[in-house]
Amino acid sequence: MAIVRHQRHINLRLALPYVTDRRPRFPLPPSASTTTAVAASTVTIPATELERLGVLGHGNGGTVYKVQDKCTSKIYALKVIHDGGDETTRRKVYKEIDILRKTDSPHVVRCYETYEKPWGEVAILMEYMDAGNLDTLRRKKGTFSDPELADITRQILKGLSYLHGNKIIHLDIKPSNLLVNDKMQVKIADFGESMIMDRTSDLCNSYVGTCAYMSLERFDPNANGGNYNGFLADIWSLRVTLMEFFNSNAKHLNFKLNFSKIFFYSTFQKHY
């Protein structure tokens, strides 16, 4: 008589912890709420301590105020986007904040704090440049000596060299975006149209900016495969800016040429 033994199957399975119990192999980035809390705790100049002294300018859905820290009496510039503006304006503001937080150069305007109100108002606290910008200074001063223009050019080039070295292209270099103080220090500002590239060899496909200062290929994307060198585009804009200053110095001419318009019209000459 045959005896059949049934083989016992030993359960070798181990109970695994639930996914929620697992510890990540690498630390996860902080959540949005954590980031907000950290940012709030590191603010050294509370918005409530800023007294508005006057208006420095308007534009792009916001206002720039001259403000004073009540505790230290130090003067700053406060750029406020009222109610957050439209979606495009908000996107530009957050891009500018992102770039300003990443920059640290004597040739780029410094950002001290950023504020955001529950109703959507966004503000950036920046260093105050008491001489305004190169556009207002040119209108007030009239002409610049060759050494002055050489020094202005050197400072702007150092600023662009720093930005380009960090893969940042400005895309809106013009006199009104170049701030000046009473020591004739020139600093690049207004990064609403700027871009951060992955590599310095990458091509740009953004066609924003101020027309009179834009390089020719930015007007006709189809002729360039939809891409162009954004770093060289900044140099072109600086070139137009400087030619305007040299034009202001050409008193021996019986007429004054507007070089920005010449470059603008030359771009579209094939259409006329």
UniProtKB/TrEMBL annotation:
Gene3D superfamilies: Phosphorylase Kinase, domain 1, Transferase(Phosphotransferase) domain 1
Residue positions binding ATP: K79
Domain Protein kinase residues, every copy: 50-272
Swiss-Prot/TrEMBL keywords: ATP-binding, Kinase, Nucleotide-binding, Serine/threonine-protein kinase, Transferase
Entries under SMART domains matching the protein: S_TKc (SM00220)
Enzyme class: transferase
One GO MF term attached to the UniProt entry: protein serine/threonine kinase activity
Keyword Transcription among UniProt keywords: no
EC number: 2.7.12.2
Biological process according to GO: response to other organism
Annotated protein name in UniProt: mitogen-activated protein kinase kinase
Family: Belongs to the protein kinase superfamily. STE Ser/Thr protein kinase family. MAP kinase kinase subfamily.
Reactions catalysed, as given in the entry: L-threonyl-[protein] + ATP = O-phospho-L-threonyl-[protein] + ADP + H(+); L-tyrosyl-[protein] + ATP = O-phospho-L-tyrosyl-[protein] + ADP + H(+); L-seryl-[protein] + ATP = O-phospho-L-seryl-[protein] + ADP + H(+)
